[in-house]
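Researcher: Go.
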Amino acid sequence: MHETHQVVRYLVGGASTAAINWSLVYCFVEYGDFHYSFSMNGSISIIYLYSYLINKYFVFSDHAGSHLKQGSGCVIMRLSLLAAINAVVYIGVDIFSLNYMFIIVAASITEAVVSFLIMKFVLFPTPNFWE
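Model: Structure:
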């Protein structure tokens, strides 16, 4: 039952993070007239701290004071995933001429699944998960 609650909390936290992210990207592109790639990366760098705190405290209920270890692990994970997202978005938008918001949404949903698994099993592991 704990696992189900954790997934639901991740979906709620992720939905709020995604809403902020996608809204910022849209506003940067449509109203700020910034390039989609700049907008996506700027938005992501704004929401990473929010995402880390939501996942640490709300999703995984991890109140240990190990911010340096977990925070640096989260930064490494996020930067690696960001590089992959940039590649996917570039290919989708610049090579295949797909809509930038469609590709960003699809890439970020995939990133959410991968980051959940990394956080659950590496950054904020649940004690006795396999028992």
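Model: The mean pLDDT is 88.
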